[in-house]
Each structure stands twice: as structure tokens, then as C-alpha cells.
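**User:** Hello, beginner here. Are you able to go through the protein record under this note? It all follows right here:
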Amino acid sequence: MANNFSIAIHGGAGTILRSTMTPELQTQYEAGLRDALDTGYNILASGGSSLDAVEAAVVKLEDFPLFNAGKGAVFNNVGGHEMDAAIMSGKGLEAGAACGISHVKNPVKLARAIMDHSEHVILCGAGAEQFARTQNLAFEDDAYFYMEQRYQQWQEALKEDKVQLDHSDKKFGTVGAVAFDLQGNLAAATSTGGMTNKKFGRIGDSPVPGAGTYANNSTCAISCTGHGELFLRCVVAYDISCLMEYKGLSLKEACDVVVYDKLVKIGGEGGLIAIDKLGNIEMPFNSDGMYRACRNSAGRNEISIYRE
């Protein structure tokens, strides 16, 4: 049993600058982060599990239209939405993930159902949706996922025939949560709508255990947001755990090596949220900004967007 608990969440990283943000929009982003943070924190405070806390926090972020996940998912090349999500338990390394899915209201709930109620780790596309129906998960039509801003981003990307990393400039729209509960268990969850105008069923790091999402009670829980291809190639989340397990690095030291050195060397932009087996929190990123928030039982309570 632990005598403390903690949670951290993120809503994406990238070219996020004060100069291009309106006060109204900043207030909306902060409200979305706060709602998700409070939801997860309250579950932990009442003795709930880290798994339930990260799932509930990510559901809130998926339902919030400004983040590229769930309701706010970006358009793919053919004008649809292909969403990915993963969840992982640090206790027994159980994991569930769904990728390339459409119309499932909360992809993270499908990831949890895959972990809890199937003998598999990753399900994709139509098969994953078929499984979601057996679990009585909520589905929504195209109108639910339609956001005018996302549609315009897609139109711009179509005109230029390029894949965009969410929004304009470089923004990596992913949401995620990591938590440490009073039972001493870690958990992580990540959800994304992927890249604007993506083609050919592209999958990023978010639904891949060890790349964009990882939890292990002996080390840490990680949820990443960034240029997925580079995070996949660096196996970012597992690499941090390995540096802690095999080299004895602290959470901060391991995060610093991966985010500020290994990723930078190959042009990997983004960040992550992390909690170790003692409940310590790190939220490193090498981009201009990252929508992030954390709270713990010792009184730490932060919501941040820009590089301080």
C-alpha cells in the first residue's frame, strides 16, 4: 500500500505559443484539462484504481472537442476519422489497444474492454468496432465528430497534398493520463485522432504498448505525445522504463535522456507525462509547448501550456 497518490494528464504538444493563443481559447483549454484532472484525481482520492482514474480522465479529454481525440479527432485523407487508443496496467503488464477505428465514441473505453474482456492486446479497424458492439460501447455518427476547425484543417492539407500533424504548424494532438494509486499500482492511457489527412491506415505510437503508452509497477507509467513515427522508432515509453530498471536512473534522469537527447538526435519532437513507483511526476517536452496538468496528494496542482 502507498500513502500517497498522483495523476498527470496531457492534451498534446508542439508549436503552442502564447503569441498565437487568444485568452478565451487558453481559458477553454485550461478548463478542459482541469475537468479531466479533477475527474481522475477524485477517483484516486476515494481509493479507486489508477486504471479507472486514467480511463476516466482520458474519456473527459476525448469528449472535449479542442483536443485531437474522440469528439475532436482530425479528418483523414478520405474525410473520415481513424482513432487509436491504448491502456496499460503496471501491476501485471496487462494492456489493451484499438487502432484505426471510426464511430466509437470513446476509444479508450474500447482499449480497456480489449484488455479486460478479450485474450488479445491490439484490435484494429472493423474487427475492433465489431468487438466494441459486443461490449455495448457507445457509437456516434459522423456528425458527432464533425468540427468546423478540423474540417478546414483537412481542406488546407488536401490543397497542399500533405499530412499535417494536427492543427496548423506542428502540433501533435494526442491525449493521455498516467496515475499512481493508494494500492501502489501504476497505469497509463493514451488516445488520438492521429494526423490530419493521413492515408493508408497509418498508425502512430499511441496504441502501441512500449512506444506511446507503457506502465510497469517496478518502474513507471508513461503516456507520450509527439511525432508518432519517431516515437515508434525510439520505443520511447519502454526506453524510459528500461533506463530506470537496468541502469538505475531516476524518472527525471531517464526522461531527460530520452526526450532531450535520444529523440532530438533523430528529429523527434514532442513530450510525455510520467509517474514513477513512488508517485513522482515528470512532464518533459522538447517542443514549444505541451498541454499538461498534474495533481498529487501532497498538494502539487499544476495546469500548464507553454514552455515556462
Summary: The domain at 6-306 is CATH 3.60.20.30 (Glutamine Phosphoribosylpyrophosphate, subunit 1, domain 1). The chain has a mean pLDDT of 94. The longest helix spans residues 23-45. The chain has one domain: 6-306.
